[in-house]
Write a structure and sequence with these properties.
The protein contains 4 helices and 9 strands; from the N terminus they run E-H-E-E-H-E-E-E-E-H-E-E-H. By secondary structure, it is an alpha+beta fold.
Length: about 210
């Protein structure tokens, strides 16, 4: 799929397994909250647990965990569906955001380095995060991250090929412009010499 990116621009979604990474932190917090709440419920002799009647406590605890989990999952699902990227001949375009949509264009000419990073969970899931380092304002490097990439090596290679191609074309263009400028200066110098010779000749006749 990545071999055709430079020829046909298409929006590419993140790998579906990225949802596991995104959901894990909330799932861990909710599990801890449920275990802590149940432990308090079992060891407290009071008729009230956190101000709630013991008969209703377990039900309300489960309802709270379930509700928070569903809301978080729906939000992450929307983030996943709205996170895409695409490559054309000039730049990488990353689109993401739920309420506020963000479009980030990364010109190949501004890219300094591309590499992949991954933690233990990403390694287990066969995913990686592609880190793109660009030249920011005042020559300060800016880092942009593209998560949930399954074939990291192919994508990194594809981006670097486009970077090399773009910068190579810019170098050729700069050299051509330099040659044109040099030729223009030569022509101007010849014209000035011709004008100077004509003035000297006229002054001699006078």
């Amino acid at each position: 799929m990545y071999a055709a990116i430079a020829m046909v621009s298409e929006r590419i979604p993140l790998d579906r397994k990225i949802m596991i990474l995104w959901c894990l932190p909330t799932a861990a917090i909710l599990l801890f909250a449920f275990i802590a709440g149940m432990a308090y419920y079992l060891i407290t002799p009071d008729e009230l647990a956190f101000g709630i009647a013991r008969g209703n406590f377990v039900f309300l605890l489960l309802a709270m965990v379930f509700t928070i989990g569903i809301v978080e999952y729906v939000w992450l699902e929307l983030e996943y569906r709205n996170f895409t990227y695409e490559m054309d001949e000039h730049e990488i375009m990353i689109r993401h955001g739920v309420i506020t949509r963000r479009n980030t264009g990364i010109p190949y000419a501004a890219i300094r380095e591309v590499k992949s990073v991954r933690n233990l969970l990403e390694r287990i899931l066969g995913l990686a995060t592609v880190k793109i380092e660009t030249s920011g304002t005042s020559n300060v490097a800016t880092e942009i991250y593209l998560p949930g990439i399954p074939n990291k090596g192919e994508l990194v290679q594809q981006i670097m090929e486009m970077v090399t191609k773009t910068k190579g074309a810019m170098g050729v263009e700069a050299r051509e412009q330099g040659m044109d400028a040099a030729q223009l200066l030569t022509d101007i110098l010849k014209e000035l010499k011709s004008i100077s010779a004509a003035l000297v000749k006229k002054a001699t006749k006078d």
